[in-house]
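Sequence only, no structure available. Ideas?
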Amino acid sequence: MTLNWQNLSTYSLLDRPSKVELANFSQPFTGKENIGEFIDKLPNILGGQDIKKIINTVCRTFESGHLILLAMGAHVIKVGLAPALIPLLERRIIQGIAMNGAGIIHDFEIAYAGKTSEDVSEVLGTGNFGMARETGQYLNQAIKRGATNGWGLGYAIGHFINHERLPHRDKSIVAACYQHKIPLTVHVAIGTDIIHMHPDADGAAIGATSMKDFRSFCELVARLDQGVYFNVGSAVILPEVFLKALSLVHNLGHQVNGLTTVAIDFIRQYRVMENVVKRPTMESGKGYYLTGQHEIILPLLIAGILAHLTQSTDKE
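Reply:
I predicted one. Tokens follow.
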């Protein structure tokens, strides 16, 4: 069969619907922009559009009194973002934080020694990986004290860091939550954290305090109607914890509608996409996934939120 190319049906480009037009383009930069102006000039395309919508949604949620929660993996602490996050706790913009077990380890080491994160490849073969004495001893002691007093795991570590007056506690997210009475929950999988290798580790205490934190987390999720939920840098544990908490509160008759979820990570992860971005927002709400380096994306987002709120206050 010979095709007659002259019979090809065409249409005018001017009449065709297009996904990108000049109105979506970035604006030229002068180098004199403040952070709010910089973000406003980003293109209204893909991530540029999403970050603007996220900032607007977070500010609107905060101003309307709805809940904003942050679930975070330990990498957020390891890349030095505590000083950027703590102001959001001080202003109660973030009203609850969930961590995995590694989060309290890096947070404690920063508060205690001003440094964290060992070179695993260098020391694994020597048997020295995870064997820092103070990390295992003090965190496990704090957890056992928390179990004895009926505390959650996050509260127990916050109490320890503050009451022992660790020298760098001003850079501790856990300490800041304790100081400002922000709920901090820690969700542990036994065997995943270096402190579980130490002789002071008490499985019953770890389980009791982390279980108490799961129940506290469920109470926060029950208040997430019209709220915002961030998952930053946790690929497995916290997305699974969130999904179970959401199912539980629905089972108990609590509505969580109009939820905005925001995932931030280096790559798109399966459980994060399904358990945070898609499933919780299928019936109502909106899910976003920002892909990039935490140490760049998160400060940009935080600065944009604070600039937007400052601008709103100035207008009043």
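Residues 294-315 form the longest helix (22 residues).
Hope that gets you unstuck.
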